[in-house]
Design goal:
This protein has one domain (2-244): Glycerol-3-phosphate (1)-acyltransferase (3-Layer(aba) Sandwich). The protein has eight helices and seven strands. It has helices at 2-34, 38-56, 85-93, 112-118, 129-144, 169-177, 189-192, 222-238; strands at 61-64, 76-79, 98-103, 122-124, 148-151, 181-187, 207-211. It has a seven-stranded mixed beta sheet, with helices on both faces. Strand 3, helix 4 and strand 4 (122-124) form a beta-alpha-beta unit. Helix 1 runs antiparallel to helix 2, helix 2 packs across helix 3 and helix 6 (169-177) packs across helix 8 (222-238). The termini are far apart.
């Protein structure tokens, strides 16, 4: 019975308010970006949008480890990709200024995609070698400007709740600029809205975000990239519940 009323609440309250909030947030980011306040707008309005969406859905959120990161330091944040609510969780509850590194296809979402471009987010284009080089150059430029970057190194949401393989791009960027890598474990997003359900009602389930100890560079080159990638993977995996432990191949990667 509670599940039924929760769905009714989502349809008649969360859906219309969420669409309105998304549209207003996008417009504000675009307008502020026109006057040179893109970073401020993305951080202020974007994070409020994500926080409000989670709160409207009445989802409990527990964040651990924020004391491990310095808000004045640039990082490359890397997280597992359990589902669509990963974005809401990190954007709404990680109080750090960062830019997203996201799939190129998201740039095609009406209004939202344009707002993301104006905010300076980096769209990953794998269509050609030239496009990949440009993506990395854009990400490097964002980081050298003093910002942090948030990446899902799996590149695709899980189908099972388990982790797939990590791609090297984010770790190579961190190595090039000698920035610390911060692993983040997301737990609960898969239960809230599994990838297989697509656009659907969400399930009431707690969302946990664990910020791990930054992994600082000890050298530069392939060895450092490999170490950061392996240590990040192990740290993220360590905080997942037993039902999501272990590697499961993701065919979408």
């Amino acid at each position: 019975m509670l599940s039924f009323f929760y769905k009714v609440y989502q349809f008649f309250v969360v859906l219309p308010l969420g669409l309105l909030l998304t549209g207003v947030t996008s417009i504000l980011i675009i307008l502020f970006s026109m006057f040179g306040f893109a970073t401020f707008a993305a951080r202020t309005f974007g994070s409020f949008w994500a926080w409000a969406m989670v709160r409207m859905l009445l989802l409990p959120v527990h964040v651990e480890g924020l004391e491990r990161v310095d808000r004045r330091q640039s990082y490359v944040f890397v997280a597992n990709h359990q589902g669509a609510f990963d974005i809401f969780g990190i954007y709404g509850f990680l109080p750090h200024e960062f830019k997203w590194m996201m799939k190129k296809s998201l740039g095609g979402i009406p209004l939202v995609g344009y707002a993301c471009r104006k905010a300076g987010f980096i769209f990953v284009d794998k269509s050609s070698r030239h496009a990949i080089v440009k993506t990395m150059r854009d990400a490097k430029q964002a980081l050298t400007g003093g910002a942090s970057l948030c990446v899902f190194p799996e590149g695709a949401r899980t189908f099972t709740g388990h982790m797939g393989v990590f791609r090297r791009g984010a770790f190579q960027l961190a190595d090039t600029l000698q920035l610390p890598v911060v692993p983040i474990t997301i737990d609960g997003s898969f239960e809230i809205l599994p990838r297989m359900k697509g656009f659907n009602f969400v399930n009431y389930h707690p969302l946990r975000i664990i910020v791990h100890q930054p992994i600082v560079p000890t050298c530069k080159g392939a060895d450092n990239v490999k170490r950061c990638m392996e240590e990040s993977y192990a740290a993220i995996m360590s905080a997942l519940p037993e039902r999501h432990q272990g590697f499961v191949e993701n065919p979408d990667q």
